[in-house]
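User: Hi! I have a protein structure encoded as tokens and I'd like to know what sequence might fold into it. I'm fairly new to this, so please keep things simple.
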């Protein structure tokens, strides 16, 4: 891994045909944008371990991280590129609770493009809505 490469992990949590999405708080960077739960991978941390940690911190659950379903690099203007890794998460202990977000909700994949997602997630959102990973 390149030392200053930013790696981000995101969970595609499914229940009853719906996917969990989260809206950032007004005070966060990219205020009120929607995203998948997850976050930054710390230095020397494995991506799956980082995602399990993030899901515990953000939603208060103990998640079993499944297979990686997509990854790509994205660059926000005037920022270093980030590597975004999406993982399937279908098993967890506990009920997801809103610990750090403005709101969380379960949505049908076909409805996801109607939400104002982070720019880095939009390509994946479109693919998920079309049933393509």
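Assistant: Happy to help. Inverse folding works backwards from shape to sequence: for each of the 133 positions I chose a residue that suits the local structure. Here it is:
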């Amino acid at each position: 891994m390149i030392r200053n490469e930013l790696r981000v992990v995101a969970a595609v949590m499914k229940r009853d045909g719906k996917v969990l999405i989260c809206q950032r708080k007004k005070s966060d960077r990219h205020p009120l944008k929607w995203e998948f739960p997850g976050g930054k991978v710390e230095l020397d941390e494995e991506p799956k371990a980082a995602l399990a940690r993030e899901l515990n911190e953000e939603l208060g659950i103990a998640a079993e991280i499944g297979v990686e379903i997509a990854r790509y690099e994205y660059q926000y203007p005037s920022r270093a590129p980030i590597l975004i890794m999406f993982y399937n998460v279908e098993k967890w202990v506990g009920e997801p609770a809103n610990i750090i977000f403005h709101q969380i909700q379960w949505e049908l994949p076909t409805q996801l493009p109607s939400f104002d997602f982070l720019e880095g997630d939009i390509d994946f959102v479109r693919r998920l809505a079309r049933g393509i990973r």
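A useful reference point when you look it over: The radius of gyration is 14 Å. Feel free to ask if any position seems puzzling.
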